Amino acid sequence: MESLLLKNCLLTDDNDDIFIKNIFIENGKIKEITDKELTEEKNTEVVDIKENHVLPGLIDCHTHLGIIEEGTGKIGIDNNETSEPVTPHLRGIDAINPLDMAFHDAVKAGITCVMSGPGSNNVVGGQNVAIKTSGSIIDEMIVKNPVGLKIAFGENPMNTYGADSKCPVTRMGTAALIRELFMRTQDYMELKERGKIKERNIRLEAVIPLLKNKISLRAHAHRADDIVTAVRIADEFNIKKLVIEHGTEAHLVKEYLRDRNIPVAFGPILTPRIKMELKRRKYNASLELLDCGVKVALITDHPYNSIEQLRMVAILAVSEGLSQRMAIRCITGHPAEILECQHKIGNIKKGYDADIAVFDGNPMDINSKVVMTIINGRIVYNKL
């Protein structure tokens, strides 16, 4: 039985009240949080946190970690299968290299879980996956697989295929390809239920969990009109779980998203406005969305912002007026909820995965550093 006792942890609750607690971890789960002195059981590793700040492990719910590898060049770039525009049968898990050096960067930054998946050059890119950031066997790092089906609107698919006069040349073409796939899947599902399918179709099988509302539709959309198109298509096919990815202009349709309970995985924001869709990017858009009642998770879109910049994005949001408590929520609890893994990650609570980041100062102070990262109850980084 593996156990770990963290003594003298500085925790802050939702009312910004500060407490010193002891956290007992067993078999990778948080078993007890108390201000009482805990009995040190045999074979329990004991670590004095020395009243440093303790947060849930940080979560980035939109990356290409391990799929676009660092330090390898073109051979390590696996995010876009541009042989054809509609590839729902691709699985991000098949392209992730857990030995990518960026995983170590994530751990050093206190990031314990990410969503990684296909890129946005295809209209339908494939399935993405939520994984822990420490390990060498990707199948043993899974938190949830799949967590969504990736679709993409706007410039990327049109520039990839339209330049060669292939569909999609226009935004209408992009929407039509998505509708065609979903309609074919509906017909396939009906025939399958009647026992009329003689041969399985891997492409359509990949869409069934989406149309049965078992996974989310993850829509790459920067412009406001593309965001509304994503909502329109989701409504047409009775898709209840939609996440807007990037959402550069989401603040322009914030009430529309709020009324439909559609969250935004917002970012990256530490990039230049290198294409038309980014011209209205602004640092306080996340604050506008949150103030309106839209659930927001801050993202890096690694490697477009490096994975270790996740906390920097939250600090920047604080500088624009977002409360520190909400900024932390946007890189812990909110992404956990968007990934539909909020029952096991994103909080320090009894029964949750023991994913913890320890800081030597206020986590929203740029001068503070991560001094310890714990994943599944195991210390994977330690500078305490």
From TrEMBL:
Q: What class of enzyme is it?
A: hydrolase
Keywords, A to Z, come to: Hydrolase
Q: Which domain of life is it from?
A: Bacteria
Domain Amidohydrolase-related residue range list: 54-380
Q: Which Pfam families does this UniProt record tie to the protein?
A: Amidohydro_1
InterPro entries given in the database record: Amidohydro-rel, Metal-dep_hydrolase_composite, Metal_Hydrolase, Metallo-dep_Hydrolase
E.C. numbers: 3.5.2.7
CDD domains the UniProt entry points to: Met_dep_hydrolase_C (cd01309)
Picking any one GO molecular function of the record gives:
imidazolonepropionase activity
Could you tell me which SUPFAM superfamilies the record lists for this protein?
Composite domain of metallo-dependent hydrolases, Metallo-dependent hydrolases
Give the matching PANTHER family: ALPHA-D-RIBOSE 1-METHYLPHOSPHONATE 5-TRIPHOSPHATE DIPHOSPHATASE
Q: How is this protein named in the record?
A: Imidazolonepropionase
Look up and give the organism this protein is from.
Oxobacter pfennigii
Question: Which lineage ranks, top first, belong to the organism behind this chain?
Answer: Bacteria, Bacillati, Bacillota, Clostridia, Eubacteriales
Name of the gene: hutI_2
